Amino acid sequence: MKIGVLSRNSKLYSTRRLVEAAEARGHEVHVLDTLHCYMNINSEEPGIHYKGELLAGYDAVIPRIGASITFYGTAVVRQFEMMGVYSLNESVAISRSRDKLRSMQLMARKGLGMPITGFAHSPDDIPDLIKMVGGAPLVIKLLEGTQGIGVVLAETRKAAESVIEAFLGMKANIMVQEFIKEAGGADIRCLVVGDRVVAAMKRQAGEGEFRSNLHRGGTASLIRITPEERATAVKAAKTMGLNVAGVDILRSNRGPVVMEVNSSPGIQGIEESTSIDVAGKIIQFLEKNARANRTRTRGRG
Prior knowledge:
Elements: E1 2-6, H1 13-24, E2 28-32, E3 37-40, E4 47-50, E5 53-54, E6 60-63, H2 70-82, E7 86-87, H3 91-98, H4 100-109, E8 117-118, H5 126-132, E9 138-142, E10 151-154, H6 157-169, E11 174-178, E12 186-193, E13 196-204, E14 219-222, H7 227-240, E15 244-252, E16 255-262, H8 268-274, H9 278-289
Parallel strand pairs: 1-2, 1-6, 6-7
Antiparallel strand pairs: 3-4, 4-5, 8-11, 9-10, 9-11, 12-13, 12-15, 13-14, 15-16
């Protein structure tokens, strides 16, 4: 197959591993800087150009779309879909998962375990919003934040009111969630490929920190997950419509709760902590499923 990896940086671990895994299995792979892809949008012969040349002959693309370029990145993926190229994760699914509020609403509709989540616009509603999620301590999240940035733990009601008022005063969109104290600053990252969890790791927050993101000093270790956690991760990915996803789960007193579903999960931490060839499993999935014009949305939505 001829595969395009949409990535801003060919030297990133995840990008490099995907290229190595694909080439090891005999595929032709090209890393394409997403922001340097430009599009000819027409109904007769839609195309994508890159560095002065028309991109042609691709069987599949692997989107590694960073949160900061979601709008343009999904437009590029959508254009490939219009050209009949199979995308590992479809444009609509990426957009769906990137919208934290929308993704929470979709998962709630499917009955997935989630932390109690509140969303409001008016400062007048702050007291009731705090009460709705069970009071302090609680977690306040910027909807546009990634890798733990824009996530605040408010330990008292006064602190919660002050932070929420400050964010709303800046016209920022936020959501408020109950704090799952029993998780002990740890979460589980499940790497879903297709209809199964191929690897899982426990991420533990550092001393004095409640965010377990590896970018914020968290540590990763191998963990054995329960059948319920496995089923929850797969259902969360499918709810978003993602073929490959990183699903972050907390262990709560009422069972697994989903914190986030990531459409471009990093694979370095999970490969190093589990010794599982995650990149290879992703390429195997492509080999089994990549077909011309197989995209369900065909560029719509």
